[in-house]
């Protein structure tokens, strides 16, 4: 019997649409390229303190089921799904409408908008929409913020009702007016996805497959608790994602055949723009440990719940990093000393950055941040560096997000 080999394994994700920790009704997973992964289930055992008239230990009892772990990878153009998972909101627009074909407008749709859960439930007779379909919204009387957006269907509850995910900040009143909802039957050349901090996080079904031995581990209720990125001057830009979930199911058949978006990595040489305080800066060597944390609360085990988490609740976000720059002056140091608000913007381009295959781009922006004070030290006879901690936040920036990520690629939805 063959031994499972890591080189043949795969990792795939799909958003859970109808309910937390419940499989999507239509399988449509996306393959996640990774270097290593550690997603697993553990069932603890509790020692027994029972006295039975001798010193021998009594049998232990079972604890709760803990599904945790994560994966390491490189910064890639096809990793929009985990970016959406960690931030919680994505707004997609057509970067270029070339080649796009839309279906017939749905007949007099009505909708109910849930602003907190960032979903829109659409009612339309015999809509014909399936999970994974992308809908273009245009010409709505309200909310106008949805106009010209492309929203993905995450659940279908009947032949007359389906659910779209929508970005953060959408008002609750829906008025069609002369507007339209149309299915994208042929995607445009390129799309722009803007990720921001959402009011809640999506949950995912994750599958870890070992095709060489026919074993598949399915995890439900997965939420992404943390993302880390190291921005360096050369080589792959290392990333990692930490997850927390509800349950594991082991089977001999895969949940789905994953959609493979291919490997399109951004390296250090692709970093074409770096701005500090809105101005280009040329003395930065690295931004290490750029960390986005959701502070997940997994202490949600319920009676008669089989030892699994009944929910995973996100807390306040925390964004931090360390910037390393040539020690040429005290400009950055004085900003830290005076707690002067600043910002950082980093843009990677493959090729032209227009969004077509081989020309993807991704931008990370911290609109509001403060540096922590650390005096430069003399630790070698050569050139010296200044290293300052970064704490990002949201107060009044136009982005309305502690971290904003903008991805341009060929996907009509992530």
Give the structure's gist in a few sentences:
The chain has 414 residues and is mainly beta. The protein contains two helices and 26 strands. The longest helix has 8 residues, at 80-87.
Description of the molecule:
This protein is mainly beta and 414 residues long. It is built from two helices and 26 strands. The protein has helices at 80-87, 331-337, and strands spanning 10-15, 30-31, 36-37, 40-46, 61-74, 88-96, 101-102, 110-114, 119-123, 134-138, 149-158, 161-165, 180-186, 190-197, 204-210, 215-231, 238-245, 247-251, 271-276, 279-280, 284-293, 318-326, 342-349, 361-372, 385-392, 404-409. The strands form two sheets. It has a 19-stranded antiparallel sheet that branches.
């Amino acid at each position: 019997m063959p031994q499972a080999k890591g080189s043949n394994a795969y990792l795939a994700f799909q958003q859970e649409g109808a309910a937390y920790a419940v499989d999507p009704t239509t399988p449509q997973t996306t393959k996640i390229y990774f270097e290593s992964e550690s997603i697993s289930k553990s069932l603890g055992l509790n020692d027994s303190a029972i006295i039975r008239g001798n010193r021998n230990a009594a049998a232990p009892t079972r604890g709760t089921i803990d599904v945790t772990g994560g994966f390491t990878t490189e910064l890639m153009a096809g990793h929009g799904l985990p970016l959406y998972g960690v931030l919680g909101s994505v707004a997609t627009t057509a970067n270029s409408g070339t080649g796009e074909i839309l279906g017939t407008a749905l007949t007099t749709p009505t909708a109910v908008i849930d602003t907190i859960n960032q979903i829109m439930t659409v009612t339309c007779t015999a809509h014909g929409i399936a999970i994974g379909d992308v809908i273009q919204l245009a010409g709505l009387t309200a909310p106008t913020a949805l106009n010209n957006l492309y929203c993905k269907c995450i659940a279908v509850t009947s032949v007359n009702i389906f659910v779209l995910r929508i970005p953060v900040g959408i008002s609750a009143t829906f008025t069609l007016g002369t507007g339209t909802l149309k299915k994208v039957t042929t995607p445009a050349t390129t799309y722009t996805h803007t990720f921001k901090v959402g009011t809640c996080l999506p949950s995912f079904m994750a599958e870890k497959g070992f095709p060489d031995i026919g074993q598949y581990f399915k995890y439900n209720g997965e939420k992404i608790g943390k993302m880390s990125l190291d921005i360096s001057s050369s080589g792959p830009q290392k990333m990692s994602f930490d997850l927390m979930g509800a349950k594991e199911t082991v089977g001999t058949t895969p949940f789905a055949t994953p959609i493979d978006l291919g490997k399109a990595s951004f390296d250090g040489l692709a970093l074409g723009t770096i701005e500090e305080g809105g101005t280009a800066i040329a003395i930065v060597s690295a931004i290490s440990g750029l960390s986005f944390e959701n502070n997940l609360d997994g202490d949600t085990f319920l009676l008669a719940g089989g030892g699994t988490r009944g929910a995973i609740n996100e807390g306040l976000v925390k964004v931090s990093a360390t910037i390393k720059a040539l020690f040429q002056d005290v400009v950055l140091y004085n900003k830290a000393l005076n707690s002067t608000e600043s910002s950082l913007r980093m843009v990677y381009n493959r090729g032209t950055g227009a969004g077509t295959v081989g020309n993807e781009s991704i931008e990370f922006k911290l609109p509001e941040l403060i540096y922590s004070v650390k005096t430069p030290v003399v630790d070698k006879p050569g050139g010296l560096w200044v290293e300052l901690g970064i704490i990002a936040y949201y107060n009044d920036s136009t982005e309305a997000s502690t971290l904003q990520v903008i991805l341009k690629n060929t996907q009509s939805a992530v």
